[in-house]
Amino acid sequence: MKSEKSIVRLILILLAVLVAAGVLYTVLSDRFAPTTITPVSDAAGSVDPEELPDAVDFEMEDAAGNVIRLSDFIGEKPVIVNFWASWCPPCRAELPDFDKAYQEYGDQIHFLMVNLTDGVQETKATAQALIDSEGFTFPVYFDTMGQASAGYSLYSIPVTIAISADGKLLSHQVGALSEAAVNQLVQSLLNP
Predict the structure, then answer these.
(1) Three-state DSSP class for 173?
(2) pLDDT of 72-129, one tens digit each?
(3) What distance in Å separates the CA atoms of residue 128 and residue 166, rounded to the nearest whole number?
(4) How many degrees, rounded to 5, is the angle at CA 98 between CA 97 and CA 103?
(5) How far is C-alpha 101 from the geometric centre of its chain's CA atoms?
(6) Count of domains in the chain?
(7) Are 141 and 65 in contact (CB under 8 A)?
(8) Torsions phi, psi of 153, nearest 5?
(9) CA nearest to 71, candidates 40, 108, 110
(10) Do both 29 and 46 map to the same domain?
(11) How many CA atoms, within 13 angstroms, populate the side-chain half-sphere of residue 71?
(12) What is the pLDDT of residues 38-53, one digit of tens each?
């Protein structure tokens, strides 16, 4: 009899935890839903380009360890920056779509695939192992100093930002992009 009451109590506690988790998910998913600073599709028409914020500059390393700045890519063509890590399943899911877009449009758009390299959970070696095993061809950069993640207040990944050729921040998307969304982003940068 006593063990039956304990089992019933345990089941009720588990149900309460599940209900609380559901409520928290609903509340927090609205708060942390993918956001767009300024939709790229609006940048050509309803938004004055002068009112768009400038992209936050940061330093990163290339595969050889050379320090590169985001601002090094501003001026000639638009930029797509994707923040990712090899341990992140949504990041891994969207990387093939970015690689396909890079292969097709890399001469018209700078693709910066910025790995959040903390040296513990993510290292250059783990990131490079994924890139090599999947045969990705896009350029990979490493946020070894944490400037990119701090500059864009990254609290989850993947995050993709689009920047105009003149350095204006056009969009900021939290969460994995589908192949259609990657293509839409590319087209909106090529045909503003």
Answers:
(1) strand
(2) 999 989 999 999 999 999 999 999 999 999 999 999 999 999 999 998 999 999 999 9
(3) 31
(4) 100
(5) 15
(6) 2
(7) no
(8) 45, 50
(9) 110
(10) no
(11) 5
(12) 354 444 455 566 788 9
List the domain range (segments joined by +) for residue 122: 40-190
Task: Fill in the amino acid letter for 180.
Answer: A
DSSP tag of 50:
G
Question: Which residues contact residue 131 at a Cβ distance below 8 angstroms, ignoring those fewer than 6 apart?
Answer: 140
**CATH number of the domain where residue 87 is located:** 3.40.30.10
Task: Say whether both 60 and 147 belong to one domain.
Answer: yes
Do 22 and 63 have their domain in common?
Answer: no
Whole-number average pLDDT of the chain: 85
For the record, the structure tokens of 70 come out as 């985001």
Checking if the pLDDT of 142 tops 50, the result is: yes
Are 47 and 110 in the same domain? yes
Q: What is the pLDDT of residues 125-141, one digit of tens each?
A: 999 999 999 999 999 99
| Cα separation, 49 vs 51, whole angstroms | 5
Average pLDDT, integer, range 166-188: 94
